[in-house]
Every structure is written in C-alpha cells, then in structure tokens.
Design a protein that fits this description.
This protein is mainly α. It contains 13 helices and no strands.
Amino acid sequence: MIGFLLRRVGWMAVTVWVVFTLSFLLMRIVPGGPFDRERQLDPQVEANLKARYFLDEPLWRQYLRELGRVAVLDLGYSYRLADFRVSEIIAQGLPISVALGLVAVAVALSLGIPAGVVSAVWRHSWLDVSLMTLATIGIAMPNFVIAAVMILLFVFMIPLFPAAGWGTLHHLVLPGFCLGAPYAASIARLMRSGLLEVLSQDYIRTAYAKGVSSSVVVLRHAMKLAMLPVVSFLGPAIAGILTGSLVVEKIFNIPGLGVHFVEAATQRDYTLAMGLVLVYTVLLFVMNTIVDLSYKLLDPRVTLD
C-alpha cells in the first residue's frame, strides 16, 4: 500500500509538470495578452505592467520562473484582480464550491443508486422503463434548464427556497440538486447495468437456489461488484463537481471557483488560469487514486500496481 501511494505521488508530480508545461505554452501561443483592452494602454504603462509580471523576459525564462514558483506552491498574483494572490482567490472560492459539490454528490448518490437498483431488480417493468426514461432525460437536459424549472417550481410557485445568494443551508439545496441531477442520472444507468451483469453470474444463481432472499442477494452479495462502474465514474465526476459549475454558480449567484475558470481564460489571466488548472489536476489525480483504493475494498481480487 505504501509503495502504491509513493508511486502515485511520483506520477502526480510528473502529471502536474506536464499539465503546467502544456498550459503555459498554450496560454502564450493564443493571440492577445493579459493587458489587452478595448482602449489601448499607454505604451509606457503597458511596458511597466509587463515588467512587473516579468512578461518582458524571454519565454524560456518566464517558464523557469513560473515553474520555480509552482514548485514551492507559490502561484503568484492575479493579473486582473489587482493585489490578490491566486492562492487567496482559490482559498475563498474553493470551500464554497466544495460545499456545493458535496451537496451535489449526496444528491447524485442518494437518487442514482436506489434508482439503478430498482431498475435492475424489476427490469422491463413499468418502474424500470420510467426510471430509465427519467435518467435519459436527466443526462440530456442541460443544467440551466433544470435550474429554470427548479426556480419556477420552488421559488415562485412554491416559495420554499431562495432564488440566489449564499450564506445558509437553504441556499445550497436548489443549486446542489441542479448540479447533482445529471450525475444522478448517469449513476442510475451505470448502477443498473452493473447490477444486471452481477446478477447473471453463477454464484448469484447459486444463492437464489439455496433459498436466500432477493434483498440479501442484492444488498449483501451483488452490490459490491455492481458498484465498480459507479466508483469509476465518481472519480473524475467528483473532481469536476468540487471545482464548481460555471452555469449553476452563475445562475444562483454563488461565489465559487466556477466563474473564475472562464474569466481567467477569457481575460488572459495567466497566473489565475494556471492555478485553477493545477488545482483541478491535483483533485482529479487524488480522486482517481481514491477510486483505485476503493476497487480493493469492493473486490479483494484487485491488486494495486
């Protein structure tokens, strides 16, 4: 186990370096810069700004300078949000996105797993057809459509929740549901297919032949293996959820990381864009590592290489 974790840490360092290098080159290749405005800056002012952020240096020196900062976990200052360090922006937005993401994950699991189990146990029934139809609609329906329907129902028609804002648990319910619903639909379909595959195996038929009840067979014998495709899906899904959803955060006016992702790219804020990309990379790598460890817990036959 220790060797597995050490190898993962080494691969994570290599992955972060590769992502950093590609992101650095792509941001410099794209036309435009962080100080481009609709109104042209005075040449001396622009030169001073570039000197402040070392953008007047050769590209290779900029690369080594930024790589050295990242190596000591210093992400520098944002180009657009004056006097704010990138680490400060992430520290302010990440906990909010994580809180919203945890609610979304809870919604996805609490809706998706039971729906998949019911569909698999009563396959080809009206319940199966209804739940899988809802799952298909949930996957196809964009977040902003779900948000519009939820606001119409539970803000205007039945005023149970606030329309937007941040500060209380009530502000988390609607955006958490809107963010988690499409993932719940995917989990339901994965759970159904995984459980159907496990229920067709010989040891499950043997358990039925011995008179074991259906609930015990499904919950005690089949669920662990049936969860493997769901766990595989949850790794990158949770990383994406926790870093925030631009659409949901924008609609409900939530000050998370989602808005910063797009604004950093469109405004050529090199340091903020780089910081957010690296945060997402680390989260994705950590979640995939947790997925691999979960495989071992769910199926002892799996070996960690």
